[in-house]
Amino acid sequence: MLIGLLPWALILGVQGGQKGMSWAEMLMMTMMNFAGGSEFAAVNLWADPLPILLIATVTLMINSRHILMGAALAPYLKHTPLKKVMPALFFMCDESWALGLAEAQKRKAQGLPAFNMPFYAGACTVLYLSWASFAAIGAAVGPMFGDIAAWGFGMAFPAVFLVLLRGMWKSFAASRPWLVSLVTAAAVYLTTDGAWYVPAGALSGLFAAYWWGETA
Predict the structure, then answer these.
(1) N or C: which end of the chain has fewer CB within 10 A?
(2) Prediction pTM value
(3) Are residues 139 and 95 located together in one domain of the fold?
(4) In the chain, what is the greatest distance between 2 CA atoms, to the nearest angstrom?
(5) CB 101 within 8 A of CB 115
């Protein structure tokens, strides 16, 4: 997973460096807002003067999916003290969430205590430090490079999520909410400006999971 993640962090940093962001600014952004999608949006909107309100609004919109991700983890964290839950949710990203949820489901099926906090904390630590440091390195060397999109590294991020989906795969019937989410997000992306496709895909997938769960 890191093989696909680290080039993407470098791309984020390089794009930020080419927009005038320093490596320190990139490091602060990635460590305070640990969510790749909204970070790329912020970099794309980076300008002089800085449109702070626009960046904050888009970040909130894109990161709204974390509400649903947290809700999915809630049943496995209900017996965990709040002083552990809050840091766990702060360091939650798409990858650590998927790894933690898959591990919890596996342990539950084995009759073990569902949520493995040491496993989750280890995954979060590696992802957090790797993402932030490689993004900062990218920002430091960014002005030295030209159009990095031509290098083909853009496939790295989708590849990471395909690997995560494969790890969570159960059956075609269980994956129907994924298909609903994909189709909805694609339709909104093609017909609506902005990042509305992110919450649209997340909410439609949640409703589909609820509907098929009720009718199964």
Answers:
(1) C
(2) 0.73
(3) yes
(4) 56
(5) no
pLDDT, tens digit, for every residue of 22-41? 999 999 999 999 988 889 88
Q: Are residues 81 and 177 in the same domain?
A: no
Interatomic CA distance for residues 106 and 103, integer angstroms: 5
Which segments of the chain are extended strands (E)?
Answer: none
**Residues 135, 208 within the same domain:** no
Do residues 19 and 7 share a domain?
Answer: yes
Element (H, E) at 55: helix 52-63
| Same-domain status, 154 and 193 | no
Tokens read off for 165: 């989906």
119 plus 190 within the same structural domain: no
Query: Hey, what are 29's tokens?
Result: 């952004």
Instruction: Determine the angle formed by the axes of helices 2-18 and 117-141, rounding to 10 degrees.
Output: 40
Q: Are 135 and 16 in contact (CB under 8 A)?
A: yes
The whole domain housing 155 covers 2-169
Euclidean distance between CA atoms 178 and 203, whole angstroms:
11
- In whole angstroms, give the CA distance from residue 143 to residue 163: 32
Radius of gyration of the chain from its Cα atoms, rounded to whole angstroms: 18
Residue 176 sits in the same domain as residue 113: no
What is the CB-side half-sphere exposure of residue 94 using CA atoms within 13 A?
21
What angle, rounded to 10 degrees, do the helices at 94-109 and 65-77 form?
Answer: 30
DSSP 41: H
